[in-house]
Amino acid sequence: MTASRGDTPIYVTQPSLPPLEEFIPYLQQIWDSKWLTNSGPFHQQFEQALCDYLGVKHLALFTNGTLALVTALQTLRITGEVITTPYSFVATAHSLLWNGIKPVFVDIDPITLNLDPDRIEAAITPQTTAIMPVHCYGHPCDVDRIQKIADNYGLKVIYDAAHAFGVQCHDGSVLNHGDLSVLSFHATKVFNTFEGGAIVCHDAKTKQRIDHLKNFGFVDEVTVVAPGINGKMSEINAAFGLLQLKSIDEALQKRKAIDARYRESLAGIKGIHCLSAAGEKVANYAYFPILVQPDYPLSRDALYQKLQDNGIYARRYFYPLISDFPMYRGMPSAAHANLPVARKVAEQVICLPIYPDLSGEQVDSIVELIAC
Length: 372
Ligand SMILES: *Cc1c(COP(=O)(O)O)cnc(C)c1O
What we know:
Helix 1 (20-33) runs antiparallel to helix 7, helix 3 crosses helix 4 and helix 3 crosses helix 6. It is built from eleven helices and 16 strands. The mean pLDDT is 96. The two termini are 12 Å apart. The strands form five sheets. It has a seven-stranded mixed sheet with strand order 2-10-9-6-5-3-4, sandwiched between helices. It has 372 residues and is an alpha/beta fold. Bound molecules: pyridoxal-5'-phosphate. Residues 64-66, 88-89, 91-92, 134, 160, 162-163, 184, 186, 197 line the site of pyridoxal-5'-phosphate. Pyridoxal-5'-phosphate (PLP) is lined by residues 64-66, 88-89, 91-92, 134, 160, 162-163, 184, 186, 197.
């Protein structure tokens, strides 16, 4: 038996779309008003709806998460060196290079797979201006310790929160930590607007600066204050986001059930390690990473291939490490000896399929393939 039963392949994620007819009235409204972009009514409504849902004060929508990261760095005028993780999607470090900033890679914690706070201080130099951690797989970073280090050294903190939609930590939304947090609403993420992203900030003045920067630096018709980018989200994407928001809680519940089913059935398999559960905190079950350890009968890549041969398209997030790509690997902080934990995890990880429409039977057949 194959998990896909010989018909449709199972990908690591699949967006859940609302019925098309529910989207038509939104489109009708856009057609009627002919307001297609530049902070139209849906854009404004969606920003407010997201602030309410996420429990944050201010949020600026973007075309995608990468432009939001690039703009977040410009918002705070970050220069010099920024401490970041090698264990992430490549856009995290690319946003630094787009700003002429030098990434300094620091190893991750073996339990959370987030930037290891114990290793940050040693990487700080007179050129360091900020820390850019990632809430990897939606698991919150050690936000209090990172903030303490930032305060001690006068550094800014910008979280790449692309995985952390809806995630809570001990004191509410994890997005309220750091100076800025950046979300991605790409089609592969827990909450999507086809393409999209956002910056979360704490005050109206910062929000205004972000809004200028995402609109070429225009302040009014004749005044340009910065070399801003075109990062504006269109009305179509904002409208779709408003519609998606109606079903996000149900989608998260379904993900939670899949996560639990995987954990229970994988528990007895020797050599397969699941990342620790999110516990009492509100998680978003965005990913289901497993580590294939040396006592598993197959190598990680052999298991990855076996799944693929059976129509299961799992992904090796995050392999290779960002620091192994050609534009980074010559940097001193990219040296293998500097990143032993990240390196080991990158060689063991597989993210299994998880999305709201994945059935319990499909989960069982994926586990069955892993078990023998
Ligand atoms: C998806 C992702 C991004 C990039 O977001 P886009 O919206 O695709 O540009 C950045 N960082 C991380 C960690 C991501 O997973």
